[in-house]
Design a protein that fits this description.
Length: about 425
């Protein structure tokens, strides 16, 4: 269990006003975390999942509540809930208010045990900006936990423990009718994570240069909807497996019909939703090909197949645009610009890049999750990305690293190597 000495990691974390520790992995390295502290992390992630499941943060939205009230609302056992919230309060998720009666601290009186929100806990509310409640819910999936608990199988064999524990590769598993609920939780988890970073990604790169962007394996379309919102002349194509497209469609249709979101109406009017398999083909017709948090799910051979399919789609789109440009008679500058971009489509891989050496990086933890959950997926170094892209028919033109601490995704811009553009290798 975490110990209570004053210089432990749990005491040393400082929050910014959004409740995110400045660099949580840096803290891990520099703190006096003991092995005993670290061994309790599994309980910590389960505890966070449980409070997300029982919506405890939602019940605290309007102010502190006693544990009895919280237990009644969440239909949980009061004393057990108290113990869980006490543990979480010790790491800054919720805070226990100690009431005083006649100047005396009353901490053993069950009726007086109250809890309040903290910035970290606020991120576990369901309807709040930057909410990661849906991501926390993924930590309760049995299929996910079976794989994580079977990690030693991956370390022994190099094979995917998700398949060992659940019988199928993760994305095949999610496509089975009986696993739709797991798929929904996974898709919502990804959407929740993406919505935390979408604005930061949108400001890292000039997406207004494109006419149409396709988001390959784009999940619920969260990134696309932000890009379309921020770039009024942009059109989108959301491309994913059938179950993911169906769920994205339902989500956006529900939001727009409940008139909860003008953004969803706008999204549906400017974005095509296309189902398919990126191992077979990728939609034509875009000048920006975005692939976010997908390449890390696959081994080099599979990733190369996806990228070669991107390159083919880009080449076909380019040759179609070139043919129509040469036959174009209308002297319309904007149309001309449109064709210009289609002549030179770009690939944007938005992903984590593994730093070399001992540098602390959240990606080193996510890499282990990839090892357990995916088909030999991994987080790649810059060198590994160059090698992968070169072998798949691309040259890297630019790499943009995130400038704020809360976003750990970089943008790798690449063009097909057959293209005659200048290769900048401008690593910023
Ligand atoms: C880790 S999620 C990333 C989702 C989204 N890009 C994001 O960043 O939130 C990987 C996505 O790849 C999709 N995917 C997996 N296999 C696929 C395939 N064969 N064809 C198309 N999409 C696929 C999944 O359905 C999922 O939406």
């Amino acid at each position: 269990m975490p110990n209570s000495h004053s210089n432990s990691y749990f005491d040393s974390i400082s929050d910014d006003e959004n409740g995110k520790s400045k660099n949580h992995v840096q803290h891990l390295r520099n703190s006096s975390f003991t092995i005993m502290d670290m061994l309790s992390f599994g309980q910590l992630s389960q505890a966070i999942y449980i409070v997300a499941k029982f919506r405890i943060a939602d019940y605290l939205k309007n102010g502190p509540k006693s544990v009895e009230e919280l237990a009644e609302q969440s239909k949980t056992h009061p004393d057990s809930l108290y113990r869980l919230l006490r543990m979480l309060s010790s790491v800054g998720i919720f805070t226990e208010s100690v009431e005083k009666e006649d100047g005396e601290k009353v901490i053993n009186n069950n009726n007086k045990r109250k809890f309040d929100m903290t910035p970290k806990a606020a991120l576990l509310q369901s309807e709040t900006k930057g909410s990661i409640r849906n991501f926390a819910l993924m930590f309760g999936l049995e299929s996910f936990n079976r794989a994580i608990n079977d990690l030693s199988y991956s370390i022994e064999t190099g094979e995917n423990s998700f398949k060992h524990a659940n019988g199928l590769d993760m994305f095949e598993y999610f496509q089975q009718d009986q696993n739709r609920k797991d798929a929904q939780i996974f898709n919502s988890a990804m959407a929740s994570l993406t919505s935390s970073y979408a604005s930061s990604i949108s400001s890292m790169y000039d997406f207004s240069q494109f006419n149409t962007v396709v988001d390959i394996g784009g999940g619920q379309g969260i990134l696309l909807s932000i890009l379309l919102k921020n770039n009024p002349n942009l059109s989108g194509i959301l491309f994913d497996l059938p179950h993911a497209i169906e769920s994205a469609k339902n989500q956006h249709i529900n939001e727009s019909t409940n008139s909860r979101s003008e953004d969803s109406k706008d999204f549906l009017s400017r974005c095509k939703l296309v189902e398919g398999d990126f191992f077979k083909s990728i939609p034509l017709g875009a000048d920006g090909y975005i692939i976010k948090n997908v390449i890390l799910n696959w081994d080099d051979d599979s990733a190369a197949t996806i990228l070669k399919n991107c390159s083919q789609a880009m080449e076909k789109t380019k040759s179609k645009a070139t043919t129509s440009t040469t036959t174009m008679t209308v002297n319309d500058a904007s149309q001309d610009d449109d064709k210009q971009n289609k002549n030179n489509p770009k690939l944007l891989i938005i992903d984590l890049i593994m730093p070399e050496g001992n540098k602390p990086f959240i990606g080193k933890f996510i890499d282990i999750v990839m090892l357990a959950l995916t088909h030999k997926g991994r987080i790649r170094t810059e060198k590994e990305f160059h090698k992968l892209l070169n072998s798949s028919g691309f040259n890297i033109t630019k790499i943009i690293h995130p400038s704020d601490n809360d976003n750990f995704l970089s943008i790798i811009e690449a063009i097909p190597s057959s293209s005659n553009q200048i290769i900048l290798h401008d690593i910023t």
